[in-house]
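Severity: low
Component: inverse-folding endpoint
Summary: output formatting inconsistent between runs
Steps to reproduce: submit the following structure tokens with default settings.
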């Protein structure tokens, strides 16, 4: 008798099919990692078991995740991409700091692939910021969505028990993961701001 397919195996197959319908192709390994991070993120946020988080991961959530990934314009040259989001300089600073903290997570856990991905995002954000000549930095929406997902992944990794960066002990694990998740949510909200709305910071930098 063949072994029963795992939840991750079944859902990754469905996830890849949903992405294919949207014109996107990713490997099974990439699909599994994205889904695993999302389940871990939900379980940590709701303080439930992974089994409960998997049960709550409905078909609608799977499709929404596929659509959100397609919004990241995978494969596109983001330097040349249309820059439709006006990002305050202070928000660029917060985003840069958040990326640096997430990169520390990849580094301390010897995850070269995640480190390279994070450095690429950081480099792209830097080059785009260098082009700006005003208080607001015109930024491609897909770049912000990619950064938000990268921060979500780092937060989920920390919540699952990954090694903490130097200078942090386990008493700060929850706070560190929460801040990364908060930054991801703030950046995602900025990426989805309506035309004409005034962008604002999602948290106060360096609170005293």
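Observed output (run 2 of 3):
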């Amino acid at each position: 008798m063949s072994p029963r397919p795992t939840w991750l195996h079944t859902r990754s197959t469905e996830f890849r099919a949903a992405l294919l319908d949207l014109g996107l192709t990713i490997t099974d390994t990439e699909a599994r990692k994205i889904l695993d991070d999302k389940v871990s993120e939900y379980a940590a946020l709701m303080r439930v078991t992974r089994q409960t988080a998997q049960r709550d991961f409905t078909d609608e959530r799977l499709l929404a995740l596929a659509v959100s990934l397609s919004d990241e314009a995978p494969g596109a040259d983001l330097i040349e991409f249309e820059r439709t989001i006006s990002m305050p300089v202070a928000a660029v600073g917060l985003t840069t700091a958040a990326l640096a903290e997430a990169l520390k997570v990849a580094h301390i856990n010897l995850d070269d692939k995640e480190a390279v991905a994070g450095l690429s995002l950081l480099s792209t954000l830097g080059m785009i910021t260098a082009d700006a000549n005003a208080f607001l930095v015109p930024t491609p929406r897909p770049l912000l969505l990619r950064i938000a997902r990268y921060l979500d992944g780092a937060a989920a990794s920390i919540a699952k028990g990954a090694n903490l960066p130097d200078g942090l002990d386990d008493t700060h694990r929850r706070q560190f993961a929460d801040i990364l998740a908060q930054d991801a949510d703030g950046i995602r909200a900025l990426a989805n701001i309506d035309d004409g709305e005034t962008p604002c910071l999602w948290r106060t930098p360096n609170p005293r």
